[in-house]
Amino acid sequence: MKPIGNRKARLLGTLTGGLLLATGFVSTVSASEPIEHYAIDVRGAHAFVQFRIPHLGFSWLYGRFNEFDGSFTFDTKNPANSTVNVEIQTASIDSNHERRDDHLRNEDFLHVEQHPTASFKSTAFEPLGDDRYRLAGDLTLMGMTDSVEIEVEQIGAGTDPWGGYRRGFEGQTTLTLADWGIDYDLGPSATEVEMILSIEGIRQEPEEASSGD
To answer: What topology is assigned to 34-211 in CATH?
Structure first.
């Protein structure tokens, strides 16, 4: 009969080896995880939520929202799995004209006291080829939620001068004001507003992405 101590030692060695093998396998899978997590770079002002609307048919009036935040994921192997989440502070609307901005904040337009935020949560991200995508999602504005589609182009991705990794997109969509309860008469040429979105994200390490959830 073989000593019990030797059998225990072999059993312990087998279990330890299996555990190390499993740990190595998990580490390998994690390291090759294709889904990247990004925080939108609002601190560095490398992201913009802008709009434009015709003024009496003579010119374009431009504006933006100065305060917003969000994140997105990008699946490098299957981009259709990518997601976007953004929240906008509606009172931060800025058309470079104080009196006009006060009007845009009141009940004729955004009614920011009653609806202080607007949000977008993606539901689909369809690759169209040549770094172009169709982003679909639920937009919540003025207390209403409806689906919208945004035509998106990836501008670029790569390392930045500070050792980080960034990815950027630009997108455009058109909203009909009346669909969102805005019926103030701006003239026949101004029933729709064009949204112009420029988003740059900084890739987050797994622990950073987890802490932000």
So the answer is: Lipocalin (2.40.128)
Using alpha carbons, select from 140, 138, 108 the residue that is nearest to residue 121: 138
Q: What is the pLDDT of residues 54-83, one digit of tens each?
A: 999 999 999 999 999 999 999 999 999 999
Q: Where are the beta strands (DSSP E) in the chain?
A: 35-40, 48-55, 59-65, 68-75, 83-89, 93-94, 117-129, 132-141, 144-159, 165-176, 192-204
For the chain, the structural domain boundaries read 1-32, 34-211
Q: pTM of the entire structure?
A: 0.81
Q: Which residues contact 101 (CB under 8 A, 6 or more apart)?
A: 93, 94, 95
Cβ neighbour number for residue 87 with a 10 Å cutoff: 14
Residues 163-170, mean pLDDT to the nearest whole number: 98
SS3 81: helix
